[in-house]
Hints:
Elements: H1 6-12, H2 53-66, E1 70-74, H3 77-85, E2 93-97, H4 102-114, E3 118-122, H5 127-134, E4 140-144, H6 156-165, E5 169-173, H7 178-181, E6 191-195, E7 209-213, H8 216-229, H9 235-245, H10 248-267, E8 272-276, H11 286-292, E9 299-304, H12 308-317, E10 322-323, E11 333-335, H13 347-353, E12 359-363, H14 369-380
Helix pairs in contact: 2-9, 12-14
This protein binds pyridoxal-5'-phosphate.
Amino acid sequence: MKKKGKNTILARSGLQSDPVFGAVVPPVFLSTTYTFDGYDGKREHDYTRISNPTRELLAQALAELDGGAGAVVTASGMSALVLALQLLRQGDTVLVSHDCFGGTFRVGSSYTEKGLYTVVFVDMNDEAALREAFTLRPKMLIAETPSNPLLRIVDIEKIVSLCKVNDCLSVIDNTFLSPVQQRPLDFGADIVWYSTTKYINGHSDVVGGALVARDKEVYEELLWWAGNLGLTGSPFDAYLTLRGMRTMDVRIRRQSHNAQQIAAMLDAHPAVGKVYYPGLPAHPGHALATRQQDGFGSVLSFDLKGSTQNVMALVERLSCFSLAESLGGVESLVCHPATMTHRAMTEEARAKAGITDQLVRLSVGIEDADDLIGDLREALE
Ligand SMILES: *Cc1c(COP(=O)(O)O)cnc(C)c1O
C-alpha cells in the first residue's frame, strides 16, 4: 500500500479500531489489568504499565508519522530522556547540545555530578569542538534543533554521519518542530525524542513524551525498559494526546504563519535588538532550516533594548500572551528564559549559550495575527 500523507495519518490513525460497537473514535482503555484467555493464555495486553491499547494507538501514530520501527510513549518529555539513557552503561560519555532545554541541562549535569554518566555539553555547530568531543568516545549524542530559546539550527545529517563513523547513537530532540515540520529519521538519526506536552498534544493540558526509534531492536529495548521502570504514559493522557494530535498540521501551519509575521514586525521595531527566528533571511540558520525543515516553527526570541525594568514592563503589559513557561499550545505565551525556563542553568552557562537577561521568548498560538501584533506593538511602545 502507498505510504499515507501526514494529514491522513493524523486524521485517521487508530479510527474504527473498536470491534464491539464500531465506534469511529477509538475508546480509552483505562483498565490497569487484562484477563488471560484461560490458563497460560496471555493476550496482547496484560498490565498497563507494560502495555495498553490506548497508549499503543498513540505510539503507532507517532511511529508512522516519523517513519520509525516503533515509538514508546512516556509520562513526560523528561521520562523519555531517562528512557533513552537506559541504552547506556554507567560511565558512558554523552554529548549534548550546549544550548539545550533547561531540564535536559539539569539532568545531564546532575547525572555527571553523581558519576552515572559523563555528559559533555557541546556547541553542535562548532565543528572543531565536536570533533574533539568525539575523541572522548561518546556512546550517545543528543542534539536539539531548533534550539531553545535561540533557535539555532543544527545540520542533522552532518552530525548523524559523525555519529555513525564513531559508533555513537544519535538522538534528536524534535519537540520544537514536531514530525509535521521535521523528520530526523529521514536524515539517518537513530531516535527522535519528543515532549508531546508541546505541539503534539498542542492544548497545554497534558504532560507527556515519546521516543521514536528507527530500528526494531532499539525500539524493543526501549519498550522493555519503559515497562520495566514504569516510565510509560497514562492511557487517559494518551487518549487526549491522540485527540489533540489530529489537528497538529493545521495548528502548526497557522502558528508558524503568525510567528513569521510577528518576527518581521519585531525585526523592524526600534525597541527591539536581535530577533531569533529561522524564518528571517538574516538568521544564520535560515538556509539550513529551509533545506532541513518543512516550515520554521512558531517559537521565536528577541532581545529587548533597555533595562530589566523594560522587560518586566513588557511581559506584564501583554494581554494576548500569557506569562508562562512551555510552548506549542494553541494559545500564545511569553517567557523570560533567564528567570523562568533557563533559571536552572548557571549564569556562566547561560552567557555561554547566549541567553541574555534582555531575552524574551514567544510561543505563538493560533490567535488572529493582527491581535497578537497589535498587543506586542502596544506593549513595546
Ligand atoms: C518541554 C521540553 C522537554 C521536556 O518535556 P516535559 O514534557 O516537560 O517533560 C524537552 N525538550 C524540549 C525541547 C522541551 O521543550
